[in-house]
Amino acid sequence: MIPILAITMGDPAGIGPEIVVRALSHPETYEKCRPVVTGDARVIEKAVALLGLPLKVHAVQRVADALFSYGTIDVYHIDCIDLSRFEFGKVDAQCGNAAFVSIRKAIDLAMDNEVDGTVTAPLNKEALNLAGHHFDGHTEIYATFTHTKKYAMLLADENLRVIHVSTHVPLRKACDLVKKERIIEVTELIDDACRQFGIANPRIGIAGLNPHSSDNGLFGDEEALEITPAVEELQRRGFNVAGPVPPDTLFAKAKCGQFDGCVAMYHDQGHIPFKVVGFNWNKETGRMDSVKGVNITLGLPIIRVSVDHGTAFDVAGKGIASEDALVVSIDYASKMAVNRLQRS
């Protein structure tokens, strides 16, 4: 039971094609899944040449024609880049469009049950919008084209798994979005995700919004009015939850294994500790030793896992980008796909 995964190439001007090729240069990848890249086959050929790897590119127009053989990268070819005016590290509308159509194809293949899950390489939001595709990012694209109303972002890296009550909104608005119903909704999503990862009885820690979870109302009332009632309702429903846990201790406890999942109240509350754990900068070499961690969109009818880093235009085309996060993304998507296949 080896699932078929569609892997998008990302923005061609960024590190997406490089890390896709590097991830597919590992024989272990083909033991976990049968990968097919969606995007322009010529961009993937350019990445193979840049990295000097002994890999072949096999362009197809149907998933059924893919070889799924280590040493050959199957690409569902979409003619979407003019290489004569292509530059690494540049914000370019044609690259934004290329990333977009690669994503749309992956979504369509998954919705048509031609692939068992999707994995996305990074895109550039500015280039995406320059191309006329007005979305905040991958999550909103997936939600729109899968017709999903209730969804949430989950970040995962080893013991640390974080879901957010809100993401891409101003901080002032994020405070207003801390509502009992939404907290319950995202907690149900992370509980189900943990079970898909093989955790039988997930322990979920729910963060407070204010310092020290408001210290019984000294620093705000969101805990008393919204968060605590949500925790109590979830406990009545049989969920193994605790909270509101002070935000400055929740993530440290989760990293050490006290919680299987965390509910963050807003974007940076969850992202900052996650990236402190997963991003490791080497001061001596002046580059990242590793960039780990994945972004999973929960609530969709299809599987979507992504790297949790950007296009890294500053190192694109230099052949030094780390594929660590994409390898982990493929691993997560493979596990989730196998779980779904077993359920069906």
Task: Walk me through what this model shows.
- It is a single chain.
- With about 350 residues, the chain is α/β, with parallel strands linked by helices.
- About 40% of the residues lie in helices and about 20% in strands.
- The strands form 2 sheets. It has a 12-stranded mixed beta sheet, sandwiched between helices. The protein has a two-stranded antiparallel ribbon with strand order 11-12.
Summarize the structure.
The protein is an alpha/beta fold and 344 residues long.
Number of DSSP strand runs = 14
Percentage of β-strand residues: 15-25%
> Portion of residues in helices?
25-40%
Contiguous uncertain segments of 5+ residues? none
Number of helices: 12
Counting copies of identical and different chains, the oligomeric state is single chain
Radius of gyration: 20 Å
Cα distance spanning the termini:
12 Å
Q: Mean pLDDT, rounded to whole units?
A: 93
Which class best fits the helix and strand makeup?
A: alpha/beta
Largest sheet, if any? 12 strands, mixed
Helix and strand sequence? EHHEHEEHEHHEEHHEHEHEHEEEEH
Strand line-up of the largest beta sheet:
3-4-2-1-5-14-13-6-7-10-8-9
| Morphology | globular
Feature tags:
single chain, 344 residues, alpha/beta, 12-stranded mixed sheet, two-stranded antiparallel sheet, 12 helices, globular
